[in-house]
Write a structure and sequence with these properties.
Elements: E1 21-27, H1 38-50, E2 55-62, E3 66-73, H2 79-93, E4 108-111, H3 118-126, H4 128-131, E5 144-146
Antiparallel strand pairs: 1-3, 1-4, 2-3, 2-5
Amino acid sequence: MARKAEGHRLRLGRHSESNCIYLVTAVCFRRQKVFSNFWLGRSFVHALMAVEDSAATLCYVVMPDHIHWLVQLSELADLSSRVQKVKSLTTKALRGHRVGPVWQRGFHDHALRREEDLKSVARYVVANPLRAGLVTSLRDYPLWDAVWL
């Protein structure tokens, strides 16, 4: 008997705090390399820009089969609704380019503690293409950004 997907468990007990900084990871459906195409990856970046009024992007990286997003929520913003909005906008932008779901259900988040070094976390996020062996220099990877640049 096949096991039921357990992405719904990621939502159990989740709450978000205004002005808090979160590291979010979302994975493409069945780990498909949806964002291998630069222009399809840019659709995620455009979705981030669309929620800037309630979720300030500190840095992000779009990997071929997942994303990492370091985000600070604004007053009264809810993390789950912001991630849902970004995923929805990305999916709508990809209509016509692919058939089927773009994202796996749920997402992983980590609320940064005060003692965590924000720039170190950001460096970790944007260095993902290096660790994955996609490039030997970040200058060669187009789908990342950080506010400190």
